[in-house]
Every structure is written in structure tokens, then in C-alpha cells.
């Protein structure tokens, strides 16, 4: 059963205390090394510690925006349009998505599905069948565009609803929590917020060992990465699975969005990065952790590799665009600069650690491996603040216990593939599936109650 994920206050406090103690010990370790073992590598290590400390402290102090009754009523008057581009999607997953939209505690005004050149009509058949039971208050539309790319497919939906106040972009392999939209639009009660990232969890997280490892690192990229930068109002990239944007910002940059080129080549990927970047130019970009969706994770190494290569390519050209475009007064500019600097520093430190130190007759190997394992657990502590009704505490503990192995996988995903992404940065296409690659299997039930006062849906 897929249900509401909830952040537990007591768990959060306990995890914060443990993390604070670990960071204190870690800081003492670094100060000792700087005094007694000064070197360029220690300096890089110290910078990495400062970044880790910022990430963990800022993430642990993140608070979602909660609405007063008056603010909630005013937001109920906002027109929300859900935009779903579809391409060769698993019909069962697509059906689960449609059902999850229909079961929202705050129903959107419109759902617009745009088929971007699928090679079969399975999703259209599913949509036509679902429409017969869709809520009468929900406007629905399905368009087929041919193979025009995800950005132009989204633009069809943007153009079709000139009255929309908020666009909610959802990927076709994603199932929404019953309160995803209600929680996701809450930050727009503040006029300076232009974009909201939702929290994505693995829909198929228990499928195999790879999905478990990917789920842990994927979830932490939200609970650590985006939650920490959200404190600065500068989430630099949302995830296409669930994100919200002010419609006037989307319209302002829509032409640039669909006509963007990288070194003269049209771009069809990086849609989420660019929509977030445009929003960052106009205001603050945040995450709302209570706005939850469940997405299909790659279940084999080939699919994961192609997905992450695409992400890294957009990291380089998208980050370069933001550095050129964003004013220095925006924290997002400095965050991206630090990400690029981190890439350069890691390019020096990584071979030194692997080739020089680990080759010293194994003297450094065991302490280093223990050090990496402890860091893995420290970075993953916030995983315990997440309460998933489809996951027992024992299952959660078992996934947490695999944190060092998730870090090992990230050595490939976030280091090796980062260099490969840079080497192939001019490849601006989608580069993933031509047919359905990940399927749901059984259609999940969406919507048992875990938040007090929430409506039970089974």
C-alpha cells in the first residue's frame, strides 16, 4: 500500500541530536588533522567537511510551510493545472497516476496529458477508460503531438490553459500521495516563492538490491540536498516527477524554454533544471517535504547509467547557463559555483586517495574504509525521519544499514558518470527508453491515513 509519508518530530529531534554529536566528533578529528598533518588533501577534506556540516545542519532545520485557515481558502481559489507528458509508459503505472490525481484531497482544476510520440496507444486506451470515472469537477484532456520532445509536449499544456495560476509537472511513471497537491501549493501563499519541489520516494524500492540502494541515495538527495538549499530559497533543480511553478514565470520564459540550444544544438532534456532556473531568477525556490510522490526507479544498471548520464550532462550545461544568467546576489549562483569547484577539487583528491594512499601497503585502507562507512551513515541519518506506511521499521533499518554500499554505488554514479557526462555534454537528447523499461507490476492502493484528519482512501 502506498500511503502518506510523514516527517516525525520526535524522530527528527533524535536524529538531529545524534547528527550534532557526530559532527562535533568529526570537527574535532579535522582540527587535529589540520594541526598535525597539514597538506593540500587535508585542506580539501576540511572544505568537504564544511559543506557536509552545512548540508546536514540546514536540512535538519528545514521546516515545511504550514497554512492558516485563511491562507488555505485563498489558495483553494488558485487554478492548478497538472501537466503530464507521456512517452512509451507502462499502462499500469499510468493508470495508477491517473487514479492518484483523482484522489487528491485538494483536487486540481485541470489534468492535461500530452503523448509525446508513443509507439503504441496503450496509455490512450487507459486514459479513455479512466475518464468515465474521473471526478466531474476535474477538467481532463489528452493530446498526441508526435515526437516533439518533452519540453514542447509540456508547452502544449501550458498554452492550453492561459488561466492557470500554478502548473504542477508530473512524470508519467509517478504516483501522487493523496495530499501531494494540497501540500505542494502551500508555499505559494508567500509571494516571493516561485517554485516548489516535491519529495520523491521509490515506488519500486523493494524490487531488488539495486532499487534499494538507489532509493536511499535518491531520497537523501531531497532530504539533505534540496532541503538544505531550500533554507536559502535556492533549490537549483527540481525533479520532474513532482514540481510546482508559478504559471506567470513559466509563460515569461516559455519561448526560451522550448527553443534553448547548447552550442547550437537543440535541447530536449534538462526540463526540470531549466524550469527551476527560470523560477530562481524571479524569486525563491523551495522544497515542501510533505508534498510526496512515488516514482519508478531504474531496476538495472544499464537504465540507471543512461538516466544519470543525462542528468550529468544537464548539470554541466545547465549550471553554466545559471552562472552566466543568475545575479551574484542570488545564493543559487554561489551554490552552483561551489558544485563546480567541488568537481574540480574531487578530480584532484579522488586519484590521490585511490592511487597514492591506498597503495601504501594497506596501511591507510582500513581506516579510510571505516571513515567512508561512518560518513555514509551520517549523511543518511535523516532517512529515519521519514515514516513510510509501506515500509516497516525493520525494513527501513535494513536499507539504512546498506548506506556504505549505496555510497559505493554513488562512486560510480556520481564520479565515473560525472566525467562521462562532461565528455558527452554535447549530446542533448533524451537517451533513455524507446520502449517500456520499468513496469509497476501490480497497481498499488493509494491513500491510507497517516496524517491526523486526512481522509481515508482505499
TrEMBL record:
It comes from the Bacteria. Residues 1-27 form the signal peptide. The chain crosses the membrane at residues 43-61, 333-355, 361-378, 399-420. Keywords: Cell membrane, Glycosyltransferase, Membrane, Signal, Transferase, Transmembrane, Transmembrane helix. Coiled coil: none annotated. Its main location: membrane. It is found in: Cell membrane. It comes from Streptomyces himalayensis subsp. aureolus. One of its GO terms (cellular component) is plasma membrane. This is Glycosyltransferase. GO terms for biological process: extracellular matrix assembly; hyaluronan biosynthetic process. InterPro entries: Nucleotide-diphossugar_trans (IPR029044). GO terms for molecular function: hyaluronan synthase activity.
Amino acid at each position: 500500500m502506498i500511503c502518506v509519508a510523514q516527517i516525525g518530530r520526535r524522530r527528527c529531534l533524535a536524529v538531529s541530536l545524534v547528527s550534532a554529536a557526530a559532527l562535533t566528533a568529526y570537527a574535532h578529528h579535522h582540527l587535529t588533522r589540520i594541526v598535525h598533518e597539514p597538506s593540500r588533501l587535508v585542506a580539501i577534506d576540511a572544505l568537504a567537511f564544511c559543506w557536509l556540516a552545512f548540508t546536514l545542519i540546514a536540512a535538519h532545520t528545514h521546516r515545511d510551510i504550514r497554512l492558516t485557515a485563511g491562507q488555505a481558502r485563498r489558495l483553494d481559489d488558485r487554478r492548478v493545472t497538472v501537466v503530464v507528458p507521456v512517452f512509451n509508459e507502462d499502462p499500469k503505472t499510468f493508470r495508477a497516476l491517473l487514479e492518484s490525481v483523482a484522489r487528491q484531497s485538494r483536487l486540481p482544476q485541470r489534468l492535461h496529458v500530452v503523448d509525446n510520440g508513443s509507439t503504441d496507444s496503450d496509455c490512450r486506451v487507459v486514459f479513455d477508460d479512466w475518464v468515465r470515472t474521473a471526478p466531474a469537477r476535474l477538467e481532463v484532456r489528452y493530446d498526441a503531438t508526435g515526437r516533439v520532445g518533452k519540453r514542447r509536449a509540456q508547452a502544449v499544456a501550458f498554452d492550453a490553459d492561459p488561466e492557470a495560476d500554478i502548473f504542477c509537472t508530473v512524470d508519467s511513471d509517478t504516483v501522487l500521495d493523496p495530499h501531494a497537491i494540497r501540500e505542494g501549493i502551500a508555499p505559494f501563499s508567500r509571494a516571493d516563492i516561485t517554485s516548489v519541489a516535491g519529495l520523491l520516494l521509490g515506488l519500486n524500492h523493494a524490487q531488488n538490491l539495486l532499487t534499494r540502494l538507489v532509493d536511499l541515495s535518491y531520497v537523501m538527495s531531497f532530504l539533505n540536498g534540496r532541503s538544505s538549499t531550500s533554507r536559502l530559497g535556492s533549490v537549483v533543480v527540481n525533479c520532474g516527477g513532482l514540481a510546482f511553478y508559478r504559471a506567470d514565470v513559466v509563460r515569461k520564459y516559455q519561448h526560451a524554454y522550448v527553443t534553448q540550444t547548447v552550442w547550437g544544438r537543440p535541447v530536449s532534456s534538462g526540463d526540470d533544471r531549466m524550469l527551476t532556473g527560470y523560477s530562481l531568477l524571479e524569486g525563491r525556490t523551495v522544497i515542501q517535504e510533505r508534498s510526496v510522490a512515488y516514482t519508478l526507479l531504474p531496476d538495472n544498471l544499464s537504465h540507471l547509467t543512461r538516466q544519470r548520464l543525462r542528468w550529468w550532462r544537464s548539470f554541466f550545461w545547465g549550471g553554466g547557463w545559471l552562472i552566466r544568467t543568475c545575479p551574484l546576489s542570488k545564493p543559487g549562483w554561489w551554490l552552483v559555483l561551489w558544485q563546480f569547484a567541488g568537481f574540480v577539487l574531487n578530480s584532484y583528491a579522488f586519484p590521490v586517495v585511490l592511487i597514492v594512499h591506498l597503495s601504501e601497503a594497506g596501511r591507510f585502507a582500513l581506516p579510510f574504509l571505516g571513515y567512508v562507512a561512518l560518513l555514509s551513515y551520517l549523511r543518511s541519518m535523516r532517512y529515519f525521519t521519514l515514516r513510510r506506511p509501506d515500509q516497516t521499521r525493520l525494513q527501513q533499518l535494513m536499507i539504512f544499514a546498506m548506506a556504505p554500499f549505496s555510497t559505493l554505488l554513488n562512486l560510480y554514479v556520481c564520479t565515473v558518470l560525472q566525467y562521462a557526462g562532461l565528455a558527452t555534454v554535447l549530446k542533448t537528447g533524451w537517451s533513455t527508453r524507446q520502449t517500456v523499461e520499468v513496469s509497476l507490476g501490480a497497481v498499488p492502493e493509494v491513500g491510507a491515513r497517516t496524517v491526523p484528519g486526512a481522509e481515508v482512501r482505499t
